[in-house]
Structure prediction request, 349 residues.
Amino acid sequence: MGFSSYIWKAAPFVAMISVECSDVGLSVISKAALTQGMSNVVSVVYYNALGTLILLPYLIFCRNKQAPLTFSLLWRFFLLGLIGSSGQIVYLTGVKFSSPTLSSALVNLIPIFTFLLAVIFRMEKLELRRSSSQAKALGAVVAVTGAFVVTLYKGPPVLISSTSNLHQHLLFSEQSRWIIGGFLILLVCLSSATWNVLQAATVKEYPDKMTIVFFYTFFITVQSLVFSLILERNPTAWKVKSTVEAAAIVCTAIFGSLYRIAIHTWCLQKKGPVYVAMFKPLGIVVAVILSIIFLGDSLYLGSVIGSAIITLGFYTVIWGQAKEKNMVLQNEVSHMESSGQKAPLLQSS
Prediction:
């Protein structure tokens, strides 16, 4: 009984580590497939189409029929898909120009950008007199500073792979390509933050998350198909030429959407959003290891310094959010206790 309860308590920890490892693994395998000539636009069509097919039985047999699908909701799903389709295409282009390590460092800015957008649209209050708000504001500034460092300063290599000299012309981006890739990933982080804000409003109106995911992948498939017909004029790009390309498409369809969403939803219910967010910087370490082993990539000084600054800013914001939530809970408890103490006096009078 004790051992099983220990396993059950450790399950969210193991699950979140597996999600971060799979996310970075997808970046690495996508980088390898893109290096071999896979089209970033066509790949988005393929793996979202596969994800849509996998979710189709859920829509037919398991969807909550009591929640009606209105035109307003379908329009929101379309907008979510539009943000997602353009973001996925730009993200793969950014990874192709830079590295999985850079992308793993910069995706930590998504919660920061989400917080800033929530403040701008008055979905969250920022009272600078409170230490929690000061921590969130300072953490946001520090994280954005780290993003500029990791993007603009590549620096000398710190760890060099044994295969890096053989494949340098294929796997290393020049400084200009590195900067372009970094800024493309930054744009994706901003669009992902916008997607988070829009999705939060959509979930409040329509709580069936898996139905939202189905229409999200469906609209991405349709929209990216239109984009590919405009941007990709080479008909041979639609042919899957290697097992690496096929593995990238299948793994992204399964682990990039279905597995990640299922684990995140379960861990959010079990542990809360702060616990889920804490694991995000782990992806930087995993990306460094996998990139050196499988891509023959090197670790640069700019990535080390910038990632450390981003991680510091990230956890500062998380600490401020956790402290703010604790203050709200303490106020609610004290309010309930004061109400309970006043109740007998009212009854006796």
